[in-house]
Design brief:
The structure is a single chain. The protein has 433 residues and is α/β, with parallel strands linked by helices. The chain is 44% helix and 15% strand. It has a 7-stranded mixed sheet with strand order 7-6-5-8-9-11-10. The protein has a 4-stranded mixed sheet with strand order 2-1-3-4. The radius of gyration is 23 Å and the shape is elongated. It is an enzyme of class 2 (transferase). GO terms for molecular function: methyltransferase activity. Its EC number is 2.1.1.-. Belongs to the CFA/CMAS family.
């Protein structure tokens, strides 16, 4: 009798201690769960073996990336329904060791082992990061991490990001329902950054983590500044240099494959860091802030655009998201916005403005997911089925996290204010709006 789905539903509900809010369809064709809900498709019992070997997020991620686990129906709805049970159980949730003291939980685990079959465990998908031993956030380890994420093919990123080739939160002055487009929103974001930095002809701008050159090109073309953009990605740099040449801006824009810690040709009038600081890491953040402070002229401005997480009661208990760390941004870390502001101030900056644009990132990510889904066959061809599945899951889950205020994104404007106290800022804040 085909009953794997019903058995799975019962076992999962025992483990989670709550009704399962999605349907299940198992490898034997059986189904169970609430009618009309999104369906969690367990394509192979191998998915259970992955979960048993790595309980929690990493096991789920491996099953998803390998294609052993899928969702039919609206992915956002499925993730939202499952988030409270699996990913966001709170700081007071039972650990696995505590849960296994419960006889019913132990019985459920034994039931999963029986249903999963042997052997244990399956090999991780090839898209998972293979870690080298050593300290985090050395120049070498940062190069490896950046290469894993960004050197997957510029054609793939063109498909997902669209013509703007900007891989950070857009700024939606008009939502799509009112005629706004992703390209216009990204252009408006670059212009917002330029206005906050008060860019003027003849100035020098350092764009840290310059990506495919969009900010550097915008600043040079629209504001007449000279720009140095630095990235650790060879593929990004090659693409950005071609774009600069096509725009006729080689006399004003230089793209380097260089660690920001090695930039030594300051001073600059302004520094932009857009979606880069998440890669720095907590133990290096003060060094990062201090390096940028030294590279600025007195009165120079820094615009730091960075994702933030919610603070925890016990900050020492913070751990990096396993799925993101293993498949998306190796060694990436998020900090609360208060921590970021404090570190910038400790480095010597005067923080003059903090603007949250959290909802804008949710809109941006949903647009990227739509681009990926509409070009799915091409995305798989350009990368791999597993890589495309990684990007779809992480972008959809991130969109929900921004919408639900689980994470945020902020633009912090800071000034290297001279000792005499003349910041060069206008008396009225937000004159760039």
């Amino acid at each position: 009798m085909a009953d794997a789905a019903l058995r799975l539903q019962g076992l999962f509900e025992q483990l989670l201690g709550a009704p399962l809010p999605v349907r299940i369809r198992a490898w034997d064709g059986s189904q169970a769960g609430p009618p009309g809900a999104p369906t969690l498709v367990v394509r192979h019992r191998r998915a259970l073996r992955r979960l048993l070997f790595k309980p929690g997020e990493l096991g789920l991620a491996r099953a998803w990336v390998a294609g052993d686990l899928d969702v039919e129906g609206d992915l956002y709805t499925a993730l939202d329904l499952l988030a409270g049970l699996i990913w966001e159980r709170g700081e007071d949730a039972r650990t696995l060791t505590e849960a296994l003291r419960d006889p019913e939980v132990r019985a459920a685990v034994r039931g999963l082992v029986k249903l999963a079959g042997w052997p244990l465990p399956p090999a991780p998908p090839r898209e998972e990061v293979r870690r080298a031993r050593g300290h985090l956030h050395t120049k070498r380890s940062d190069r490896r991490a950046i290469s894993h994420h960004y050197d997957v093919g510029n054609d793939f990123y063109e498909l997902v990001l669209g013509p703007s080739m900007v891989y950070s939160c857009a700024y939606w002055t008009a939502p799509e329902s009112e005629g706004g487009t992703l390209e216009a929103a990204q252009r408006d974001k670059l212009e917002l950054v330029s206005r906050k930095l008060d860019l003027r002809p003849g100035q020098r701008l350092l764009d840290v983590g310059c990506g495919w050159g969009s900010m550097a090109i915008h600043a040079a073309r629209e504001h007449g500044v000279s720009v140095v953009g630095v990235t650790l990605s060879q593929e990004q740099a090659a693409y950005a240099r071609k774009r600069v040449a096509d725009e006729g801006l080689t006399d004003r824009v230089e793209i380097r494959v260089q660690d920001y810690r090695d930039v030594a040709d300051g001073p600059y009038d302004a520094v932009s860091s857009i979606g880069m600081a998440e890669h720095v890491g907590a133990e290096r953040y003060l060094e990062y802030a201090g390096d940028l402070f030294k590279l600025l002229k007195p009165g120079g401005r820094l615009l730091n655009h960075q994702i933030a997480r919610r603070p925890q009661r016990d900050e020492s208990a913070y751990s990096v998201d396993e799925f993101i760390d293993s498949y998306v941004f190796p060694d990436g870390e998020l900090a609360p916005i208060g921590t970021t502001v404090t570190q910038l101030e400790r480095a010597g900056f005067e923080v003059r403005d903090v603007e949250s644009i959290r909802e804008h990132y949710a809109l941006t990510l949903r647009r990227w997911v739509a681009n990926l889904e509409s070009g799915w066959a091409r995305a798989v061809q350009l990368t791999s089925p597993g890589r495309a599945r990684v990007w779809r899951l992480y972008m959809a889950a991130s969109a929900l996290s921004f919408e639900r205020n689980r994470i945020g994104v902020n633009q912090v404007l800071a000034v290297k204010t001279p000792d005499r106290g003349e910041s060069g800022m206008p008396l009225r804040a937000r004159t760039w709006n």
